[in-house]
Design goal:
2 domains, Cytochrome Bc1 Complex, Chain D, domain 2, single chain, globular, 44% helix, mainly alpha, 234 residues
Length: 234
């Protein structure tokens, strides 16, 4: 199994853009979780911190259950991105769970925040969506579920802080058009389909500009606070 993942680590090098030493596969012991996640590091960084290519997200510190659910979705084909689908295609549940728990436990430094080249009005619209929502269109604020510091919520809601605008835009667009889905009731699909393309660009830009909090750990589960029932929290 380790040889299989090592092979895909080489494949990932050819499909992912990287220029940082932290994205070069390296480990001290072959019988270690660090060795078993080397297929991940060329895109997501040695500590899951992400790389200079904004399309490959930071995964460090996200809830373990969220990461595990995404790995299962990639393996089973319900979330589609060919390099990821191939990478985890034959990995069993315990292996994926170990990978998820490993990256969830890490807290590497954040990269410098992004400064998207957008108009002030666009940024203000993004801030409004993220912090207060748009009640007239049934859009709750991002912080209601993803946390005041945008670090996510246990067990299944990811942090948004540290993500690039391009990645956020791509994921929201996939939710909008039905290419990405989650366990029912799929709260993100309900929210994303209420966003216009302009809203997506605005909230993506604002989120990418936010400073990370001192404690980047996900918040504890709080179903009472959530504006919608969400299958990922079960």
């Amino acid at each position: 199994m380790l040889r299989t993942l090592a092979f895909f680590a080489g494949l990932a090098v050819s499909t992912c853009a990287w220029s940082q030493d932290e994205a070069v596969p390296a480990f001290k012991s072959i019988d270690s979780v660090e060795a078993r996640v080397q297929g991940c590091v060329t895109c997501h960084g040695q500590s899951g911190q992400g790389t200079e290519n904004g399309y490959f997200p930071r995964i460090a510190g996200k809830p373990a259950a969220y990461l595990y659910n995404q790995l299962i979705a990639f393996r089973d084909g319900t979330r589609k991105y060919p390099p990821m689908n191939y990478l985890v295609a034959y990995l069993p549940d315990p292996y994926l769970k170990e990978m998820a728990q490993h990256f969830a436990s890490l807290r590497p430094a954040f990269a410098a925040k992004e400064q998207p080249n957008v108009a002030a009005g666009v940024v203000e619209r993004g801030k409004a969506i993220a912090t207060t929502g748009d009640p007239s269109r049934g859009i709750p604020p991002c912080i209601a579920c993803h946390g005041a510091g945008l670090t996510g919520m246990e067990p299944g809601i990811p942090g948004l802080v540290g993500l690039r605008a391009a990645y956020i835009t791509a994921q929201l667009t996939r939710w909008r058009v039905g290419d990405r889905r989650a366990a029912d009731p799929d709260c993100m699909k309900r929210i994303a389909t209420r966003l216009s393309e302009t809203d997506v660009a605005a909230v993506s830009a604002w989120l990418a500009m936010q400073d990370p909090p001192k404690d980047a750990s996900p918040e504890s589960s709080n179903l009472v606070r959530m504006p919608l029932s969400c299958g990922s929290q079960r």
